[in-house]
Amino acid sequence: MSKRLQRVNQLIKKELSQILLREAEFPPEVLVTITRVESTPNLIQAKVFISVIPEEKFSDVLRILNRNIYTLQQKINQRFKMRPVPQIKFVGEKKTKEAGRIEEILEEIKEKD
Question: 81 phi and psi, to 5 degrees?
Answer without folding.
Answer: -95, 5
